[in-house]
């Protein structure tokens, strides 16, 4: 996750530079900020909790079931 945050920050700096050079209303500026937004969306997607499998749900409901027991060495 740290790697994507670094990419987001790099793209932000690049977007600021592009907007300073080409103007805030330019197509290049809009495209640069679109790239930042796409990376932020990906970061949010990666943070989402994955749904539990049927087996995980079963073990949560039946922790004493033989197939759900955990043995430590």
In short:
This protein has 73 residues and is mainly α. The protein is built from 3 helices and no strands.
Mean of pLDDT? 91
Q: Which percent range describes the beta-strand content?
A: under 5%
Structural class: mainly alpha
Using only C-alpha atoms, the radius of gyration works out to 22 Å
Give helix and strand order, one letter per element, not per position: HHH
**Separation of the first and last Cα atoms:** 32 Å
Q: Into how many domains do the coordinates divide?
A: 1
Give unreliable regions as ranges: none
Number of helices: 3
Characterize the main sheet: none
Report on this model:
This protein has 73 residues and is mainly α. The mean pLDDT is 91. It has helices at 2-22, 27-47, 54-61.
Keywords:
68% helix, rod-shaped, mainly alpha, single chain, 73 residues, 3 helices
Helix and strand topology:
Layout: H1 2-22, H2 27-47, H3 54-61
Helix pairs in contact: 1-2
């Amino acid at each position: 996750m740290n790697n994507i945050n670094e990419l987001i920050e790099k793209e932000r700096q690049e977007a600021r530079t592009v907007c300073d050079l080409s103007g805030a209303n330019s197509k290049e500026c809009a495209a640069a900020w679109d790239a930042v937004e796409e990376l932020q969306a990906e970061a949010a997607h990666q943070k989402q909790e994955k749904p539990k499998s049927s087996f995980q749900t079963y073990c949560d409901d039946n922790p004493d079931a033989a197939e759900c027991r955990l043995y430590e060495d």
